[in-house]
Amino acid sequence: xxxxxxxxxxxxxxxxxxxxxxxxxxxxxxxxxxxxxxxxxxxxxxxxxxxxxxxxxxxxxxxxxxxxxxxxxxxxxxxxxxxxxxxxxxxxxxxxxxxxxxxxx
Amino acid sequence: xxxxxxxxxxxxxxxxxxxxxxxxxxxxxxxxxxxxxxxxxxxxxxxxxxxxxxxxxxxxxxxxxxxxxxxxxxxxxxxxxxxxxxxxxxxxxxxxxxxxxxxxxxxxxxxxxxxxxxxxxxxxxxxxxxxxxxxxxxxxxxxxxxxxxxxxxxxxxxxxxxxxxxxxxxxxxxxxxxxxxxxxxxxxxxxxxxxxxxxxxxxxxxxxxxxxxxxxxxxxxxxxxxxxxxxxxxxxxxxxxxxxxxxxxxxxxxxxxxxxxxxxxxxxxxxxxxxxxxxxxxxxxxxxxxxxxxxxxxxxxxxxxxxx
Lengths: 105, 308
Hints:
The complex is a heterodimer of chains A (105) and B (308).
Chain A: H1 2-5, H2 10-23, E1 27-31, H3 40-50, H4 54-61, H5 65-78
Chain B: H1 13-23, E1 28-32, H2 34-40, H3 47-50, E2 56-63, H4 74-80, H5 84-102, E3 106-108, H6 126-132, E4 137-138, E5 145-147, E6 151-160, H7 178-187, H8 191-195, E7 201-205, E8 211-217, H9 218-225, H10 231-240, H11 244-252, H12 259-265, H13 276-279, H14 282-286, H15 292-305
Antiparallel strand pairs in B: 1-2, 2-6, 3-6, 4-5, 5-6, 7-8
């Protein structure tokens, strides 16, 4: 019901899911050190990679902020892998995570 | 002259505020260039969006862990590893201090998420404030700020209508440390990248030993640090369960045992509580003033070095 209130359809969810998920703060890329070096041109150039707000994503995809917000929040919950946290229970006190041990325990 | 016409003496205000912060336990303090933050932060997250007449942004950094904390289990560290509450306390006090001493409107900048946008967007970026104020530089570990002397800190910010001379960002970035560069040259990875339990960190170091690229899978990191986000997923699974056993598994299954406790008591262990990248970071753990033992040693040496 609520997604219809924002005009979010299943087709829209399917079409924009990955793009919205990646354009938000969920993935962040930085090249060089532009904020520290006060390189405003480079900051602008990298803005998309460092993560956009829902309003910025909406402008880019020609959606409303509410539509982007709804889709992003649903995805962030649905894609959350609840099993990873348990990895912490075996770490510390000299024991570090090793990818080669993954699945061996 | 009537008392209403007298104005407080604001000369030396910046030094006074820095002394206040240090007395209360801050390790580093800086004033960020407001115009720069306004240019960099997106609309809705600029200081003037929160406090329209703000003139200065003060960033306060407090120490991370004790030296002993880095050696304990991740289970234990998840509960006491964060020390941000001290930064918030100092920022809160400083806002009162400025109003009381300099009669300029001030606020403690809320460090929390934006209630309109959900768990992954802050109202303001305390990281940006601190970086522009010159008390931290972005690391390969998901842009966590590091300081060459104090290593890993937590930050709080104060917004004020008091005009203060801004500081400059740091001239050097302590990340990557020389030992991390060596490891990267031989393996293609740094310690933070290698030992992250969800492999959420990636990046590149150039021939000069500087960061050239930082890639951070924050969604993966959140799985280790923002457990509260999973609650709707658990409830949805319980509602959708076809049988009582599946419903019990969803609500009471192994990984959720402590979650209900944490939720009900509002435990800090629910928040940013995976420290595995910082645990192996030489800047965070071994900078000259990174922990109370190192700071005590530095104080002792300074006293011993003074002329008699």
